[in-house]
Design a protein that fits this description.
It contains two helices and no strands. It is mostly helical. The relative contact order is 0.04.
Length: 85
């Protein structure tokens, strides 16, 4: 019974992955037609905005990871001090 659920899960992931590829492919084709119409500046601006958003997201994620590491360290120190008492 577990195998059946695993197969469904695999199929679901594969289907989502395939849908993602298809969406990306269609987007690239659509972008090609937009660029051929002279909207290159607009496409470039959108890509730059995406790159800025990606960089901001990476920086935010790094900050969250730092805060998590600090909290984990403090928790471990508190737990150790409780165990020693």
């Amino acid at each position: 019974m577990a195998e059946r659920g695993e197969r469904r899960s695999e199929l679901w992931r594969g289907g989502r992955r395939g849908a993602g590829w298809a969406l990306g492919f269609v987007s690239v084709l659509g972008l090609g037609s937009v660029l051929s119409r002279g909207a290159q500046a607009t496409a470039k601006t959108a890509m730059k905005a995406g790159l800025r958003a990606r960089a901001a997201g990476a920086e935010a994620m790094e900050r969250v990871q730092d805060i998590y590491a600090e909290a984990e360290s403090e928790y471990a120190a508190e737990t150790l001090s409780r165990d020693e008492a």
